[in-house]
Specification:
The structure holds two protein chains of two kinds. Chain A has ten helices and ten strands. Chain A is of the alpha/beta class. Chain A has a six-stranded mixed beta sheet with strand order 6-7-8-3-9-10, with helices on both faces. The longest helix of chain A is centred in the last third of the chain and has 18 residues, at about 170-185. Chain B is an all-alpha fold. The radius of gyration of chain B is 20 Å and the shape is elongated. Chain B has one domain (about 5-210). The chains are: A alpha/beta, B mainly alpha. The interface between A and B is medium-sized, with 22 and 14 residues.
């Protein structure tokens, strides 16, 4: 279970998060949506301890990670698979070396069992035979899928996705959405997805929050968000940039 | 080790060779009427071992090694590869920074030894081919005022420069912000600060050890 209490974060005088709090239950797929620059990725980075809050707490499995030392945090991170927006593959390594690096660090696998896990992980994202390719030889969608394979290879209890479908064509978006759902079902993983794609929200998540000006503007199910009368929420889900302007007139 | 050490050898050989040659030619030019020509070997030896090899190699490697490390780690930062390392429970300092600083600190003295040899060789080539200095005279001059401490002092400089250049590069790369602009800025800052530090340390070490 993930619990976030009253999270505040300021960068160079700009308040990005202003008292964000929510709970993600075990096995749940939780969506974080909001406009670009609303603090979604910043919030996600707090969940894995890459950023420390100015005020507030982040709990994972009853462990307060927002105040943890680096060594203790490393042990918590062993349970988390993180998929970055552009894959964040190590560009000096091949596809298989990217996955092996994670496995060698976080598991006791070696030799043929390690190779089998690499092959299995790549097969699960539909990228068999790409082991020897360098990241520079992959398309954007392939990079994201290798990023997913690297994260899923360690058999995490938590999966965090940072804008997994941004910039992809509709078919690839659907492929990634199916992968997120597949791993949630197969591995019983608690999943957090940061996105601004409503298709991903409707298709993948169980519950969603909408961040607006550093605060939670909406918290509910994808069905609830469709019925919301809140203008900020309506504007976001319809993509109508004139909605708030019309209301203020 | 391979990138910082072995792949830097060609540029180190080239710069040291010509540094030795020009030292030889210029000293012979200044000695022309009132100093015996065999002194050229002494000037080349002392200049190369004490100053030219460590200093010029340090400045050249600032461009080659320092800039590369800053750009490499900076790019890893802006493309979230360092965040990815952390998320996989790696300590980026021990995984990315420590090996580079250790490699720089260990490999620079070896490069300076190569630069010493090439610099003296270049000086000998220039002295014997374009001036009236024989090999015997050159070696006589070289040996007359040769102190082993000079060579050791060059090694101290090399170790200090290696540590300084790689540390500055790693620091600026690690704290890169923004995109390509940030990487460019980190690289430029690394080169500028490293060059300033090298000339300052060069003076400081001379004051301390000579």
């Amino acid at each position: 279970m993930i619990k976030v209490n009253d999270l505040h974060k300021t960068f160079e005088g700009k308040q990005v998060l202003r008292g964000v709090g929510f709970t993600v239950n075990t096995g749940e797929t939780f969506g974080i949506i909001g406009k670009s620059g609303s603090g979604k990725s910043v919030l996600l980075k707090h969940l894995i301890g890459l950023l420390k809050p100015d005020v507030g707490e982040v709990w994972i499995d009853d462990k307060l990670i927002s105040a943890m030392s680096f060594r203790k945090l490393q042990r918590v991170r062993e349970k988390i698979g993180m998929v970055f927006q552009f894959g964040a593959l190590f560009d000096s390594m091949t596809v298989s070396e990217n996955i092996e690096l994670a496995l060698k660090k976080l598991t006791k696998l070696s030799g043929s069992s390690l190779n089998d896990r690499v092959t299995e992980s790549l097969a699960s994202v539909g990228l068999e035979g790409t082991e020897k390719l360098m990241p520079s030889e992959l398309s954007g969608g392939m990079k994201k899928r290798v990023g997913i394979a690297r994260a899923i290879a360690i058999k995490p209890e938590y999966m965090f996705y940072d804008e997994p479908t941004t910039g992809l064509d509709p078919v690839m978006t659907d492929t990634i959405n199916r992968l997120i759902k597949k791993f949630k079902t197969d591995e019983r993983i608690t999943t957090v997805v940061v996105t601004h794609e409503m298709l991903t929200v409707y298709d993948v998540v169980d519950r969603v929050i909408l961040l607006h000006e550093g605060k939670i503007q909406f918290d509910g199910t994808p069905e609830d968000i469709k019925k919301s009368d809140d203008l900020v929420v309506k504007q976001f889900i319809t993509g109508d940039s004139t909605l708030l302007l019309q209301e203020s007139r | 080790m391979i990138y910082i050490g072995a792949r830097s050898i060609p540029i180190v050989v080239l710069t040291a060779l010509f540094s030795g040659m020009v030292t030889s030619v210029q000293s012979a030019y200044q000695f022309s009427s009132w100093v015996p020509s065999w002194y050229v070997g002494s000037v080349v030896g002392n200049s190369v071992l004490l100053e030219l090899a460590p200093m010029i190699t340090g400045l050249v490697l600032t461009g080659r090694v320092g800039a590369t490390i800053a750009a490499e780690i900076g790019t890893m930062r802006v493309t979230e590869q360092i965040d990815a390392l952390e998320s996989l429970s790696f300590d980026p300092v021990s995984f990315l920074i420590l090996p580079r600083v250790v490699a720089g600190t260990i490999m620079f003295p070896f490069l300076i030894i190569i630069a010493d040899v090439c610099g003296v060789f270049g000086g000998w080539v220039a002295a014997t081919t374009s001036m009236d200095v024989t090999t015997y005279e050159f070696i006589k001059g070289f040996k007359t005022w040769f102190h082993p401490w000079d060579a050791w002092f060059g090694m101290i400089k090399a170790t200090t420069f290696g540590f300084t250049i790689t540390s500055i590069a790693c620091y600026h790369g690690y704290y890169t912000r923004g995109g390509a602009l940030g990487v460019g800025k980190a690289t430029t800052t690394t080169v500028v600060i490293s060059c300033v530090c090298i000339v300052f340390l060069d003076y400081l070490l001379a004051e301390l050890f000579l």
